[in-house]
Amino acid sequence: xxxxxxxxxRAKGKIVANGILASNPVFRLVLGMCPTLxxxxxxxNGLGMGLAATVVLVCSNMLVSMLRNVIPDKVxxxxxxxxxxxxxxxxxxxxxxxVPALYDALGIYLPLIVVNCIILARAEAFASIxxxxxxxxxGLGMGLxxxxxxxxxxxxxxxxxxGTFFVGSLGDVEFGVELGNLPDYAMGVFxxxxxxxxxxxxxxxxxxxxxxxxxAKRALRHEEEGKVIDSLIEGIVKEDEEKRAAExxxxxxxxxxxxxxxxxxxx
Amino acid sequence: MGKYIVSxxxxxxxxxxxxxxxxxxxxxxxxxxxxxxxxxxxxPLFVTLLCVASAVFFEWLFNVITKKKQTVxxxxxxxxxxxxxxxxxxxxxxxxxxxGAAFAIIVVKMLFGGIGRNFANPAITARIFLMLxxxxxxxxxxxxxxxxxxxxxxxxxxxxxxxxLPDAITTATPLKGVKDAIAxxxxxxxxxxALDMFLGRIGGSAGEVSTLAVLIGGIYLAVRKVIxxxxxxxYLASTAVFTAIFFAGSEYVGEYVWTYMLGGGxxxxxxxxxxxxxxxxxxxxxxxxxxxxxxxxxxxxxKFGTMSEGVSFAILLMNVVTPLLERIKVRTFGAxxxxxxxxLNGIKEKAAAKKAAKAAVAEGGEGNE
Lengths: 267, 369
Description:
Largest sheet of chain B: 2 strands, antiparallel
Order of helices and strands of chain B: HHHHHHEHEHHHHHHHHH
Structural class of chain A: mainly alpha
Number of strands of chain B: 2
Order of helices and strands of chain A: HHHHHHHEEH
Strand order of the largest sheet of chain B: 1-2
Oligomer: heterodimer
Helix content of chain B: 55-70%
Number of strands of chain A: 2
Mean pLDDT of chain B: 86
Strand order of the largest sheet of chain A: 1-2
Strand content of chain B: under 5%
């Protein structure tokens, strides 16, 4: 009995990258909007929320995938929620013990990871129909994509709304920069929910624009490649035709000469 | 024989274009700009010019970057700039009008497809954005220049030069006083003078304070048939009525009504901002609901909200529901008219026919016997 042991790194990498870019949960799948808008008031909060969600996502994807043949179809949603809630509780207790500042900043949105659409959606759409290893990678990619989106929105909102850069504290360590007297000119609206919607909307528009552009470029490249292939095929066909024409000519010449010979012979 | 000209419809066209309409609006805004200069000095004029320049620049820039046809020639950016400037406090730091104009033109107008496709009035949305962004700056108003004292004429040129306003020259708006009166139960008109409020010798946004100047512009627009006069008239009337209703229990109902009518940006908003073509409804039913909604929201926000002024939020909210209001149709074009009364008549007729049929059957039965 032989078992395929070849590790396809490229395919595995694609699963992770898919979560970060092509199907970014926030910008492309538009999932988990509630924590995205509520928590992204600063980059540090975004990072904390993103990592907490990533841990839960990886663990729940793994367990859901392991149990995918055991869980009856009819009760799969409660089963998923139970699994997710278990991991959320663990993460919550760990954060409360070791990073109380972040725990306070995330507030109600931390326990609400239980009902975060991203985690439930990945359990339903990916983990429950894929192998354990792939599910873990999908959880990792989606989690990193979520973290990336939250941090990007958080950086913009923090910079414009508070005039600071990555301010936060881990236990006793405080970090972050107050940018000169910029806080005096900060636009408070960006820390408010309205600013969250504005930032998210404009980022989404920009990303859609860029991906449209990339798609158009790809289509153009395909078209050009197609043209090259077409011209190659055309060339081959032409050559072939010429060859055939030459052969035909040779055959007909031969025929003519044969006929001529025959005529001569008749005479 | 004369020539026969064959052409396709339309055969009757109006000479008015976006440009001529916008020119009319600019002319109508002139009294308010003039009033702001007479009341607060030359700084509001500087703010107005900066707003206009920024609005035109950002529209031009957006069109260049996105490689679209240049649209600055229709003058709508100029109008947005002037209206935004008149919505700002008379003295603001230079970056406020610039960011406001950028927001109004790029975010509210151009990103949604340019003129006619904006989901809300660009100037009012920018004002709300600035209000939430720099609340402190947007709520510190300078005192009007005191004309009775000759030495104060110097203030015309110096007011606003020092933008870190000392407390001595800032003042509260009349509506702030009214707001305090709601809480304390005092007379809201205490210390207010109706003539001062009508002429604009009070603290407030540069172009909104002078009801007289705004009304002159409004009458010009109404005469030129640029705006739909039903909207400001219903808005103003409904504000008065709703104020009377909401303050019916107070002993100062009359005072509340006139301070609410003359204070804040009500008249300016009703004339110049609620009437924006792209964001106000056209059908009669929708216009009435729009006007009533504006008045209702304005009074509700002024009375119960944390801010003392509610006109801009009321206009933004009603702008957003305008497409829904337009869907309220009494009759589809071309379809047979069917009002509620017709429907009732139909039911009555059916009932009568049934009765008649029954009676006929009964009669027939009798006849058979």
